[in-house]
Amino acid sequence: MAVPLVIDTDTAQDDCVALLVGLLDPVADLRAVTMVAGNVGFDQQVRNAHLTLNVAGGRSDVPVYLGCRRPLVREWVSAENVHGDGSGGLSMDQDGLEPRAEHAVDALVRMAAENPGELSIVAIGPLTNIAAAVVRDPDFARNVRSLYVMGGSNNGRGNITAAAEFNFYVDPEAAKAVFAAGFDVTVVPWDPLTLRQAVFGQDRLDRIAALDTPLSRFFTRICAATLDFDRRVGIDGTTHPDSLTAAVLLHPELVRSVSPYHVDVETAGELTRGYSAMSWGVHGLEPNARVVEEIDADGFFEYLLSLLSRDIRPPRDVIGL
Ligand SMILES: [Ca+2]
Question: Could you tell me which InterPro entries the record lists for this protein (predicted)?
Answer without folding.
Answer: Inosine/uridine_hydrolase_dom, IUN_hydrolase, Ribo_hydro-like
